[in-house]
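ok posting inputs for the histidyl-adenosine monophosphate job
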Amino acid sequence: MTLQAVKGFKDILPGETEKWAFMEKTARQVFRTYAFSEIRTPIVEKTDLFIRSIGTFTDIVEKEMYTLTDRSGDSLALRPEATASVLRAFIEHGLAARQPIHKLYSIGPMFRHERPQKGRLRQFHQINAEYIGSASPYADAEMIRLVLHLLDRLGLRDLRLRINSLGCPLCRPSFSAALVEYLEDRALLLCPDCQRRMKVNPLRTFDCKVERCQEVMAEAPTILAYNCPLCRNHYDRVRELVSDLSLPVYPDPRLVRGLDYYTRTTFEVSAEGLGAQDAVAGGGRYDGLIRSLGGPDLPAIGFAIGMERAALLMPDQEDWGTGPLVFLIPLGEEARSRAFGLLNALHKKDIPAHMEYEEKSLKSQLKRADKMKAPYAAILGSEELREDRILIRDLNRQEQERIPLPRFLDFFLEKSKKSKA
Ligand code: HAM
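and the output
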């Protein structure tokens, strides 16, 4: 039997990892700009954490979690998302006592047993951000601006933002009651799943993919008419604060998202190039969640970007800046041993450099340098050795010069400073 990766679990190979490294580096830079700190949590948690946060009657908990019973009989789950884990850590370590506001990001794999297709995997990766401690609509606006800033820095274009308000515990119940009444009148038109959802978690009927259910939901009452004045003001202010963005913002009263913890603002960023799975990022406010998990009563808002989907949308770049700055080409054994010393000197100064030890022609080594996208080749042949020089070839400009060997290291120190600037 040939060995293969598990269905829905994907290798990310050299050639792609450069793009991923770029994504991670860019995310870290942008998070620094917005004063976020990184938090890393385990990929396994007690199953109960996800049930209590995402909700018992959600697709993720009902159908998609990878759970296992460990040797001590505990039910554990591979995390299907990051928010619950971040909050568990936040509460467990009493981070709230350290300062009033917490801006936390994390990057890593998540697991959901969904049907794999383009942009949908069973192990996928998220760039996740949580802003804890502010109920202000400015915090919502900052998070929406942050997610769009980050996607823009990754090179994503032609995005759309959908936004909604799911209300609060004051106004949600009257909406739920109206929705249930509407659904009960049409129960026979609904799929068996929705007939059940209607009873246990009516909001989830908006997520159903069955065409007939979607037709029913298109006419269903929406939350906006039921929002209390405080929720309405909050929502109006958030939209005002993002009204100068350079992309279309669509209020979508049916955007309920697939997780139960949201209150007030929810949003999703989608892109046309993705096909059926068009959400590249999603998030929202979850003002009651921290308290319901046993923590302090703190409001919060967050989002997550799907990295596989972002990678699909990122423009391909010839060079992600991960190749060597210089490819050393010694010709002959004496040159090789001399060039090895130069290579070590470059590495000591953290200058990206590469050299190969097999006896190959100048032409084939230059081809390799080109393949690795090195901007410079440094060629050391017998003539150069005699003159105590080395030939530097600028592979982009196709120019070359011989420089004295003692200047070699300074030459590349200078170039590497320029390439980092
Ligand atoms: P979510 O909408 O479930 O939200 O996931 C966020 C993003 O992760 C999606 O927009 C999508 O790009 C990506 N994603 C989700 N499932 C898959 C999959 N099976 N394969 C590939 N990509 C996927 C959350 O997870 C919330 N925790 C976001 C959040 C943070 N809300 C508040 N704070």
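notes: The radius of gyration is 27 Å. The CA atoms of residues 323 and 372 lie 6 Å apart.
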